[in-house]
Amino acid sequence: MLFDPGPKESRADLFGRDEELGEVDRFLKGPSRLLVIYGIRRIGKTSVLKAALNESDIPYCYIDAKGLEGDLSVRRLYGLISRCLGEVGVRFRLEGVLRRVARSLRGVHVFGSGVDFSIDVEWNRVHLTDLLGKISDNVDKFVLAIDEAQWLRLLRGHGKVNMALVLAYVYDNLSNIKVILTGSEVGLLHDFIGFNNPRSPLYGRVMDELTLKPFDRNRSMEFLRLGFRQCGVDVGEDEIAEVVDRLDGVVGWLTYYGYMRAIKGVKPVEIYNEALALIDNELKSLLGRSRYYELILEALARGRSRFSEVRDYVSTRLGRYVQPTEVSRSLNNLVKLGVVRRSSHGVYEVVDPMVKAMFGQQVK
Question: 252 and 297 share a domain?
């Protein structure tokens, strides 16, 4: 169902992404070793990744690095790895492979069998390069897929893991393991990967890149029409056109609207209000990091698109002169976080249409 709010798992449930699925498939079948998938939040990166992986016959370990939020420890990372390897054993019938890995590495333990199969990797006894090396020795091909990989840069605590170094080792030494990374905070993902940073372990490595873009107007409208037909709900063209105008082809928001309207029976005006409340809750932590973030987003959402206009707006709202360097630092951070984008002409804009709507409201 198109309006299922969760990530899609198969091509049949994924609308309008055949070209992107083809790109991932070519990577999986080709000689390239590393693929990076970019795209703003709610654009469908996870759906494309999972659908492509499930369509392939290559065993894969999928890790959602957002699972580190609230616990940026090595122990937590190893917990995510243990869980995904347990799923690999069941899904791809690789219990035997993982039992051999466990026998060859102290600190790797296997429990149960069949649907009850699980694996535990001790964070303080097993090096990830050793673990991946043993997996590589026992399979023909393997994919390590890490969603929202920019979170890996924050790992800390006793026994801290430099994941960029781990990935560089995989790239250089384990030729039958492919790596796919995704990220919505593009600048932070670039900082983590460090392809242009001579001090980064991944500097100079060749990578494939795929950027997911919002649907165009026609595709957005067709998505909504088809989704409402699937749900047996009659929605007029005027409403569909208004939804597309407001949500700007971001498939996650289109799905949210369709789900709330067709499945939950929520009225249109209430859907937008709930979406704004959702955005408000998501941004609370971010806005608390800098007193300038909210004012910058407010300026951009209200038509101040150039740096000088943003700086002047912030100063006016605060009632005092603000140094350009202070505004520039905060604005660049918002770009790195994927909340704001900058065009080649020095024009800035808010990426998410609902964030823009929230900050574009009349200032009180």
Answer: no
130-141 burial: b if 16+ Cβ within 10 Å, else e: ebbbbbbebbee
Q: Tell whether the model's pLDDT for residue 157 goes beyond 80.
A: no
Q: What percent of the chain has pLDDT over 90?
A: 90
Degrees (nearest 5) of the Cα angle 141, 130, 38?
55
The pLDDT of residue 147 is above 70:
yes
> To which residue do tokens 């079948």 refer?
29
d(CA 56, CA 5): 24
Structural tokens at position 51: 């659908």
Q: Contact at 8 Å (CB) between 71 and 32? A: no
Residues 262 and 175 in one domain: no
pLDDT at 346 over 90: no
In CATH, what number is assigned to the domain containing residue 224? 1.10.8.60
One domain, residues 136 and 274: no
- In the chain, the number of structural domains is 3
With residue 102 as reference, give the H or E element that holds it: helix 95-104
Confidence of residue 285 (pLDDT cuts 50, 70, 90): confident
Q: What is the CATH number of the domain that holds 337?
A: 1.10.10.10
- Quick check: helix, strand or coil at residue 179? strand
Q: What pLDDT, on the 0 to 100 scale, is given for residue 241?
A: 97
Range of the domain at 93: 17-211
* Model confidence pLDDT, tens digit, residues 292-336: 999 999 999 999 999 999 999 999 999 999 999 999 999 999 999
Q: Is residue 120 part of a domain?
A: yes
Cα–Cα nearest to 295, from 268, 272, 322: 322
Among 211, 238, 267, the domain-final residue is 211
Asked if 341 and 253 sit in the same domain, the reply is no
What sign does the dihedral 187-189-192-196 (CA atoms) show? Answer: negative
Region for residue 249 given its phi and psi (left: phi exceeds 0; alpha: psi -120 to 50; beta: otherwise): left
Q: Which residues contact 130 (CB under 8 A, 6 or more apart)?
A: 105
Question: For residue 116, what pLDDT band results from cuts at 50, 70 and 90?
Answer: very high
Q: Are residues 86 and 138 in the same domain?
A: yes
Q: Are residues 58 and 157 located together in one domain of the fold?
A: yes
What global pTM score does this model have?
0.93
